[in-house]
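target protein:
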Amino acid sequence: MFTANYKELTLSFNEFHNVSEKDMPQYGEYCLLELKNGDYTAGEWNPQDYKNKKSTSGMFIRGTADSIDSKEVERWHSLERYDLTECLEDEEIDWINLGPEKEGIRNVQFKGFKSFADKKKPKEEQFCLLIMNDGSLAAGRWNKWRGEAGGAFIYAPALGSYSSDEVWAWTPLSTDQFFAMELELENEKKREKKLNRNPSADPELFKYGMDIDVYYEKALEKLREEYYWATVTMMKKQTPVWQIAPLHGKYVFGQISKSYFDDSDIVTPWTEGRTSDEFINFLCGYTRDAVKNSNPEEKFKFGTDINVYLEKAFNNVKKDYRWLDKKMLKNGWRYDIRRVDGDLEFVRKYRNESRYSVYDVESAEKFIESVEYDYRSAALQANEIVASYSPKFGHIELHGWNLERYVFYKMQSGDYKVSVTAGNRTTGGSRDFFITPYCFEAKTYEEFLDRYLEIVPDYSFGLGKKELLPNEDLKKFLGY
């Protein structure tokens, strides 16, 4: 690693180019920017008209949804045309000129460099000048990795970034709107933390004390007048659950979520009343559906032996998926009925997961239907494909997505399925559909299509009777 002392190092930038003189960088060049307000930042030059090298219209791109209009820029200095390796390998050097010093030219110095090696990090959203481990210069906006120790400097769209382990030393550039917003957020958190050191409690709002379960229990008493099977566990299936939390120096009934950016708590307060009894009445309404749909007589109408439910699901699927064997299910979901916080629940875990999680359904029939879906998927995966046919089609748009793939498959068992893929510029998805034996009971190809299109309708998946009926190759592939 370099032997120069970054703490004593000064970089002197001496080759600025004036935008007013239509002296612009090369397309895609990353530059240090001096703005008309005197601030310093950096960005990649993207001209509005890349063919006109004298055009000053365009943007300096700093990152995802982060750019500077050239109208805001006074002058620029290349960051890409320098390699500081030789200088940084000399421990005596503490001043590096980027371009020759001349009388009357614009000259700007940056110092105060810090290093991750000393456990120093920029503040969140701070835009920094970087000296890279390979001796090059760069810049970027610091974003720490959520929930982890490291981070990266964002410098290009689509979150193009330099990892912290690529950077030898860094120093902040000027404060911009994004960093200012982050600073204000941090200051707000500090103010909130100070206010919440000794929060007050409204005696009307917290007449029954500061234990949220007391309020759930009182709401439970009212719910049991309508639903005798109600429990607090059922009530708390309605998420997010309510808690008592400090907010702006006062205790509130609130729902707590985690900030995506820094994992801090976000408290959303209850605002639909002012008294304890009003909150209890609200809690009854908020949790009513969860309790209503948790009737154990409906959920466990076939008893508490999970095998009874699994056998029903297996037999239902076996009617159409005739090749289904229980050995095919060993790599899928595992199901059980267990007590969770005092209540019986359907639970499941996938393959080799160590713990079961609650699988909340409102009735035995709904649970059996969900197991059937798992069994059908396992059956299709286990049935080897022996032939395929792809009907030709032109451009087909499906509710903003484009049909990309539509393939009929014949499987080893002699049955058929179809796979449909659609997507847009950023995402996509595929679905497989089993073509049931009922479809093949049709005496004619046209009648077959009528039944088939009930499973894979043209308005949802692109191809209909108009496209498929004249297709003689498909007709032959399907055995008609």
Summary: The chain has a mean pLDDT of 93. Residues 298-381 form one domain. DSSP finds 13 helices and 25 strands in the chain.
